[in-house]
């Protein structure tokens, strides 16, 4: 087993995040940021990964596949994995009913099957949000692993279901399911740090970029030195990380990781399969 594993992942939301997560239906300037991700950012990232022969997992909403079929197909045709990210980029807990959530999940499933010819094995929820029904829906459609929760930082584990949080009693985490959890973190996500919106909701997005990339270096280096067999999962968005100056910094980070002995870059699906085989 490698001393450390790196999973570089992209949430290819394109326009969908501005329509459903930010309610920007009548704001074409916001839409254009998603178009940039599809037409400029995504091709740049594919070229970068081709250059270093580094695998990547792309979580693509069905809306992006339907709206930008050519670049979505290119992700798959160039050898990168495509996994489930909902159809409309709606947070699961915000659906009005279980039926609405299930319909969105199944619609996205059909989009991926139509594009790739195979069912996705993994899921990442929009905004890392779950409803009380999400795990059941994922199990029903045959999802084998999830990457939406934060109960660990560098270790895959079994996802838990059936939790309860009563106001007047102790928290109950529930019981392990048969779904593998590949944990994420807002500390390893480009969106909250770099995305500026001036209203609905307001977000600054003007932190020192040096500090964010240094955080990623530091977290990877700490994991490498202190966690045997750790998995470093980085979440990025083509419309954010695909900006020219950030692409240069991402390339430097990849180079840094490659200088460390016994580091493997893997697809998320491979990491989940390895965990399942050994646990």
From TrEMBL:
Ranges where the NodB homology domain occurs: 16-266
Entries under Gene3D superfamilies matching the protein: Glycoside hydrolase/deacetylase
Classification via PROSITE patterns: NODB (PS51677)
Superkingdom in the source lineage: Archaea
Designated name of the protein: Polysaccharide deacetylase
Organism whose genome encodes this protein: Halobium salinum
């Amino acid at each position: 087993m490698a001393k450390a594993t790196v999973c570089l992942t992209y949430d290819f939301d394109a326009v969908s995040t501005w329509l459903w997560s930010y309610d920007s239906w009548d704001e074409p300037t916001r839409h254009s940021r998603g178009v940039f991700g599809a037409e400029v950012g995504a091709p740049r990232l594919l070229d970068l990964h081709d250059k270093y022969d580094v695998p990547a997992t792309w979580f693509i909403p069905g809306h992006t596949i339907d709206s930008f079929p050519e670049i979505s197909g290119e992700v798959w045709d160039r050898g990168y994995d495509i996994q489930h990210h909902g159809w409309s980029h709606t947070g699961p807990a915000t659906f009005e009913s279980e039926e609405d959530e299930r319909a969105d999940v199944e619609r996205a499933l059909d989009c991926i099957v139509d594009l790739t010819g195979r069912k996705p094995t993994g899921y990442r929820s929009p905004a890392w949000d779950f409803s009380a029904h999400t795990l059941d829906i994922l199990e029903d459609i045959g999802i084998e692993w999830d990457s939406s929760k934060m109960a660990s930082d560098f270790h895959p584990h079994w996802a838990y279901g059936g939790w309860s949080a009563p106001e007047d009693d102790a928290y109950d985490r529930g019981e392990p399911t048969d779904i593998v959890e590949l944990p994420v973190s807002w500390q390893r996500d480009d969106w909250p740090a770099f995305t500026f919106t001036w209203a609905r909701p307001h977000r600054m997005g003007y932190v020192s970029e040096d500090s964010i990339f240094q955080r990623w270096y530091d977290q990877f280096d700490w994991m490498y030195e202190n966690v045997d067999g750790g998995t470093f999962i980085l979440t990025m968005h083509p419309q954010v990380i695909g900006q020219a100056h950030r692409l240069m910094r991402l390339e430097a980070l990849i180079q840094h990781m490659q200088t460390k002995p016994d580091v493997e870059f893997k697809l998320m699906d491979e990491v989940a399969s390895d965990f399942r085989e050994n646990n």
